[in-house]
Amino acid sequence: MSISIAIVEDEKNYNNALKKVINYQDDMKVVAQFFDGNDALKNLPDIAPDVVMMDIQLQDMLGIEIIEKLRKEMPETQFIMCTSFEDDEKIFNSLKVGAMGYLIKGESMDKILSSIRDVYNGGAPMSLSIARRVLSHFEKKLPETKELDDLTEREKEILELLSQGLLYKEIADQKFISIDTVKKHVGSIYRKLHVSNKVEAINKFNHFKN
Prior knowledge:
alpha/beta; 11 helices; Arc Repressor Mutant, subunit A; Rossmann fold
């Protein structure tokens, strides 16, 4: 059974080139071409292709908006962003709304075809430069262990007790200090771990422990 594909791309030459190469394959077929966002938005739900090749920056709207509006109506369809944009905001907004792949337009047709097969089979294909950006984004998000090293022994003890679910008063009683002192320690913990609440502090602490 062949993979059904819709192309949403306002650059006609690129749209037609994609169609030609895809239709040359035995296992896939272009079932629709759209050259503007409104047309795609109106007609894609009725077609419900297996895969949509989606340009991010269409002349009348963002491809991200189309995915956001159609995702619930088309739960079985996989969206691959195919774009010349590599900025972080567009990448992450695309992934947030449900795109399962992100390809740069300069990719070879072989890479594009293998990405269609990949996403159809449950993968999440990305151009190498995009994958690197995604990884570096998450590396930045990971807390560094030196943050934990900045805590005093008493702060570490209090954070451990917080992670066990103890209340400020229970911690104060256990450590023979006042509740105000506990609160001061907790404020210092938040500052050093760059968090704004107890849940975030405990999550970071558990991450360090693991």
